[in-house]
Write a structure and sequence with these properties.
Elements: H1 3-15, H2 19-22, E1 25-29, E2 32-35, H3 36-45, H4 48-61
Antiparallel strand pairs: 1-2
Helix pairs in contact: 1-3, 3-4
């Protein structure tokens, strides 16, 4: 994911989401449940799984 998008997502999670929402499961990729926080961690790591997460997240946002 582009650095600019990652920064925007991180800012949204840190500043806009209520604490209870940060750990709510929002996405399941390869049978792995991801909260907002976990999704951000995976995207920052990069790699093949991060690409899948980014794709699923983009699909969800449509």
């Amino acid at each position: 994911m582009e650095e600019r998008k990652l920064k925007m997502l991180e800012k949204f999670i840190d500043e806009r989401l209520p604490e209870a929402e940060k750990n709510r499961i929002i996405l399941i990729v390869d049978n792995k449940p991801l909260s907002w926080v976990k999704m951000l961690e995976e995207l920052k790591k990069g790699g093949k799984f991060a690409t899948k997460v980014e794709y699923k997240f983009e699909e969800m946002m449509k």
